Structure formats: structure tokens, C-alpha cells
Amino acid sequence: MRIRIFWLYIGILIFISLLFFVILSAPWRYVTIFSLLLLIASTIWYELPGAEKLAAKIERLRMREIDELMKRMKVKNIEIYIMDLEVVNTFQVGAKGKYIFFTKRILSILDKNEILGVLAHELAHIKLRHVMKKIFLFDVTIGAGVNGVILLPLLHLSANTELNLKVIILWGTILFYLVLRRLMWQYFEYEADCLAIKFVRKEFLISALMKINSQYSSASKKMQSFIKKRIRKIEEC
């Protein structure tokens, strides 16, 4: 039922965008349509309707300590699953963070306490609404940049000037978003770490990060360096 409502909502947004395309004149019709398409993309990112089907096909991670941790962190309706992948990773999907996935590889290298440390980090992302903030960043930066380009004809500039401004605005928007996204991602990792160690011993998370770091090859020096920074930040929290 929930999936049907989701796709009904998407269908309504598409219908509204087509309606505005007929009613409005350029460039406002294009601003409206792009904004609605951005809303559709953000909604799909927020809901991730395919996550439920994926979760239904794989094994759940069950530990008594997990339920106790979620109660302490006051998060509800979170389901943790095991993905049959030989990569060291764990992640949440969707802005609501209903699903958290651990790969079999990461579970094979961590002990029970370290798993709880990593899980506390993922739950901290959910409590701090980090995915929602990422969606907001995407909507604001990309939306402002593209809509700015669409509205440029209203300034009645020369063809060459308008073209140059379009290129500058589009590339500037993309670069600004990529830089800001990376800085935000790093800050969110530090913030989630500091919140996580309020609910589990920091030694659990530090030990997990050290084991994860040892799995990266020498070619992943940036990631190794970032994990070392995270460990230092945890000590300072």
C-alpha cells in the first residue's frame, strides 16, 4: 500500500509539471518543471522505494545488544541487514534511515563490541538527520544554479554574454556542490562519531576504525588518512 501511495504521489507531481508546461510561458514554465523534477528526485532519494524489496531478500542482523543500543539512542523501527558482499562497508539508506546494511566482510573482521560501535555511528547519522541535510544541500545548490541559468534570458543580455554566463554558472554550481558535499560529508562523519561514543565506549569505535583502516590498500591513502583523522577527533570529543 505504501509503495502504491508513493508512486501515486510521483504521478501527481509529473501531471502537475505537464500542466504548468501548458499554462505558463517561458522561462517560468521551465523553472517550474525543473523545480518539480528536483522535488521528484529528492522524494525518491528520501524514500528509496527499492530498499524494502532488497531487505526482504537478505538476512537480518540480530543481536540482543542491538535492541538495547537502539533503546538507549531512542531510535525506533530501524532494521539491520547483512549484504553478501566482500567489501568492508556499512551504510544506511533513505533519509528516514529505516534500513542499515552491514556487509559480510565487515562483520567478519569486527567483534561484537566493534559492531556496536559502528552501528552507533550509523544510528547517530539517523538521529542527526544527515541524509535530509544532504538532500537539502543538493536541492538548494543545484536548484539555484540551474534555475539561474533558465532565468538568464530575462536580463536581455547579448548572445555571447548569456552563453558565457550560463557556462560559468553551471560549472560553478557543480564545483561548489562537489566541494561543499565533501566538506559536509567529512563533518557529518566527525559529528556522528562524537554522538556515537555517548552511547558506546569510544574504544569500541576506535578499534573498529583501526581494523577497517587495515583493510584498505596502500593505494587508498586518502581514506586511510581520513580514518586516522576520525580516530583523533574521537579522542578529542
Characterization of the model:
The chain folds into 2 domains: 1-47; 59-236, no CATH class. A hairpin with a 5-residue loop joins strand 3 (90-93) and strand 4 (99-103). It is 72% helix and 7% strand. The chain has helices at residues 2-23, 28-47, 50-56, 64-73, 104-109, 112-127, 130-151, 159-196, 202-214, 221-236, and strands at residues 59-60, 79-83, 90-93, 99-103. Helix 6 packs across helix 8, helix 8 packs across helix 10 and helix 9 (202-214) runs antiparallel to helix 10. The protein has a 4-stranded mixed beta sheet with strand order 1-2-4-3, with helices on both faces. It has 10 helices and 4 strands. It is an alpha+beta fold. The chain is globular and about 65 Å long. The longest helix has 38 residues, at 159-196. The model has no long low-confidence stretch (mean pLDDT 88).
